[in-house]
């Protein structure tokens, strides 16, 4: 476990450190460029469109030709170079093009990293949460430090910080060892068809709704807080508190999954997400806003760990990369993309407050769908 941690922990640390700059502050940067809500939503949605589409292509290539590591390193290098173009323009349409091409190569990194983790952890997969916690620690440090840096300097500093993080990530990625390339147990096409089974499809639809419900949070939470009168330092603290709460779940994931099934944890996560967004519908006080960030332990922390383990359980060995790519594509890809599009269109019309109410209903719907499917499965097995 120590050697696995030494290889993977720095990659999680850097990946989510970069995310800790991008998620809270890139849309805020665009807002300060006087982009409209629709333009901000379009940029976010385009990147997540790439996140939805291209991991499946990269994942299929990796599993079909057993070239996961070369693709991982290539995508890390190319996405780093593309990000540098953001330093050369502040116009919407060039930024739209850069966002698209960046998304193509950045998109598969996290699903590949999750697959490497499952492979290298072997029989200790339920320790994944402890490993993933390094990403949350990095996210916490980043959002607080960068939030303060923005108050002192400007939002433009985030472009240079992300480029620096991407360069470091590439160099660390080259240290990743090659994983097993044993002969296939079954043809790739047969393994990939498992992703069309009822159990997998229903889960992916539910995951889509879960991340759809996060569209308001990821796209407009920081802007919403600024409009309520809070400063960037407080905004950074709220994002950091959310990550602190998820760490509690991740470091205790082995204990949690010894007592509860993946399905139970997933349904609990949907319920927590619904509650969180509905509270944000009317919350204006710092206390209530900070309280909702504690629910991130379930709406993201437990959901993320359970979904990674659950899709790994459902997919055969010869399609593991594609399985994680499909999970990432439907949730963090199509789900977030749809959320960004809806929120980008409606933000200027009804505002973030009403959008959080919509988000709450979407999360509840996803949990209900998963619960109904599990009850049907129990009935069929009875």
In short:
With 382 residues, the protein is an all-alpha fold.
Query: Helical residue percent?
Result: over 70%
Number of domains: 1
Radius of gyration: 20 Å
Give average pLDDT, whole number.
Answer: 85
Oligomeric form of this entry?
single chain
CATH homologous superfamily identity? MFS general substrate transporter like domains
Please give the CATH architecture.
Up-down Bundle
Question: H/E series, N to C?
Answer: HHHHHHHHHHHHHHHH
The DSSP helix count reads 16
List the helices and strands and how they pair.
Elements: H1 2-32, H2 37-65, H3 68-83, H4 92-106, H5 109-121, H6 128-152, H7 157-173, H8 188-192, H9 198-212, H10 215-227, H11 232-251, H12 253-259, H13 262-282, H14 286-294, H15 296-314, H16 320-381
Question: Which key terms come to mind for this protein?
Answer:
382 residues, mainly alpha, Growth Hormone, Chain: A, 16 helices
Structural account:
The chain is an all-alpha fold and about 375 residues long. It has a single domain (about 1-175, about 190-380), classed as MFS general substrate transporter like domains (Growth Hormone, Chain: A, Up-down Bundle), CATH 1.20.1250. Helices cover about 85% and strands about 0% of the residues. It contains 16 helices and no strands. It has helices at about 1-30, 35-65, 70-85, 90-105, 110-120, 130-150, 155-175, 190, 200-210, 215-225, 230-250, 255-260, 260-280, 285-295, 295-315, 320-380. Helix 1 packs parallel to helix 6 (about 130-150), helix 5 packs across helix 16 and helix 13 (about 260-280) packs antiparallel against helix 15 (about 295-315). The longest helix is centred in the last third of the chain and has 62 residues, at about 320-380. The protein is globular.
